[in-house]
Known about the structure:
Chain A has helices at residues 19-32, 51-67, 86-97, 112-120, 148-156, 176-190, and strands spanning 6-10, 36-38, 71-75, 102-106, 161-163. By secondary structure, chain A is of the alpha/beta class. Chain A has a 5-stranded parallel sheet with strand order 2-1-3-4-5, sandwiched between helices.
Amino acid sequence: MTQPLRIYLAGPEVFLPEAKEMGEKKKALCLKYGFMGKFPLDNELILDDKPHENGLKISRANEELIDGCQLVIANITPFRGPSADAGTIFEIGYACARGLPVFAYSNTKVLFTERTVSYFGLSRDPATGVIRDHHHMNVENFTMVENLMIDGGIEASKGKIFRINVPEDELYTNLKGFKACLNAAYKLFAKP
Amino acid sequence: MTQPLRIYLAGPEVFLPEAKEMGEKKKALCLKYGFMGKFPLDNELILDDKPHENGLKISRANEELIDGCQLVIANITPFRGPSADAGTIFEIGYACARGLPVFAYSNTKVLFTERTVSYFGLSRDPATGVIRDHHHMNVENFTMVENLMIDGGIEASKGKIFRINVPEDELYTNLKGFKACLNAAYKLFAKP
């Protein structure tokens, strides 16, 4: 009997008021595809009153959780700015280096450059075509969903990024993109 | 004759108008400590008029550059929001999974939670002590420099994070924190 493949469920859902419930929803969807989902809050850690030590424990436990998985599905919906959640980005890089396929979804179809331009009210220099931010730093323009290391890492991992538009009040809860990732992961691993 | 240890130089400097000059400055400082610095723009890539393909090429070349290094020094100064540059965060995760020690510096002493609170004008619930953002999502509070995956990953890698305050107009160019990283890296590798 073969063990189900384990998927690390990366994303900012851990910060939702109903984080655990969202984890359970995602894990139930994984099961429908024959996968076993692993959610960061599954770790049962003994935390005390030292916040820094607790943070280190959670980080270590999450890394170990990824190490025990065969793939990652990451929610890269923009979080507190034009980019995805910092912890999620770290985990994508970590998983790519570990050789795990990473599938990702973003709950907006707007690409990275356009998000950055609109978030900060920037404009393109009509003469050079270059976009600079308020620190005169160049805004990369590679028609990508995220910073090129993320799109490139995911592509090289044999994963894929899905973008969909969702209603504003479902930005961090809509699971249509997550299902698209599950479907693609299922196809990747079902290949003979 | 031993080869000098190679350091991947991660950070948002690649977006500076004078990016190449900054890379040369950092590489010169590495040499003073007997290290060889590798800057993303060192890659000599043949790019054409397909932005997406170009982005993938750069990503692949940067991953290979990290693979050829023995450690990483990352500039995690907040970039376009409370968190570090997305590409830099990916590279830290990637390097941690590859087992490379990662040293990092931030050109502000303000910690992650306080940066997030002040950037978005949030406040702590006086009854529960919990901080929520405008999407009601929890703001993590672990007295860390960044999201806990970054602080935790760096700590586990045997690296270290340095924080210093710099004048506003030197936010992305001041190299005092970079030198602190070099010094710490030197000590780590000089250990008998």
